[in-house]
Amino acid sequence: MSAKSHLENKTSDIINALENGEGYDYLVELANKDSTYHIDVLLTYGNDHFVNIELAGKMNLLTPGLNKILNNPYTVKVKRVVPYE
């Protein structure tokens, strides 16, 4: 849950940067700033003036048992769809 919350916060930062006209390289740098694991950034622009923002990060599970049930490293993803001009 902590990792998902971390990605949600990073998504908000990316939305603000997009509104300020920042480029993709800056967004990737922003997503990975102060992160303990690498975060992949995927932007998909649609013809309907919306952009899909997807962030994904792989984290190692340390909980005994849970790391055997879920794939380790576990991929945490968040996605938002926001309007753009």
Describe the protein.
With 85 residues, the chain is an alpha+beta fold. It has one domain. The protein has 3 helices and 3 strands. Strands 1-2-3 form a 3-stranded antiparallel beta sheet, with helices on one face. A hairpin with a 4-residue loop joins strand 1 (39-45) and strand 2. Helix 1 (2-19) runs antiparallel to helix 2. The model has no long low-confidence stretch (mean pLDDT 89).
Explain the layout of strands and helices.
Blueprint: H1 2-19, H2 24-32, E1 39-45, E2 50-59, H3 66-69, E3 74-83
Antiparallel strand pairs: 1-2, 2-3
Helix residue percentage: 25-40%
Strand order of the largest sheet: 1-2-3
User: Helix/strand/pairing class, anyone?
Assistant: alpha+beta
Number of helices: 3
Radius of gyration: 14 Å
Distance between the termini: 32 Å
Task: Give the CA-based shape.
Answer: elongated
Summarize the main sheet.
3 strands, antiparallel
Number of domains: 1
In what range is the share of β-strand residues? 25-35%
Number of strands: 3
Order of H and E elements: HHEEHE
Sum up the structure in keywords.
about 80 residues; three-stranded antiparallel β-sheet; about 35% helix; elongated
Short description:
The protein has 85 residues and is α+β, with helices and mostly antiparallel strands. The protein has helices at residues 2-19, 24-32, 66-69, and strands at residues 39-45, 50-59, 74-83. Helix content is 36%, strand content 32%.
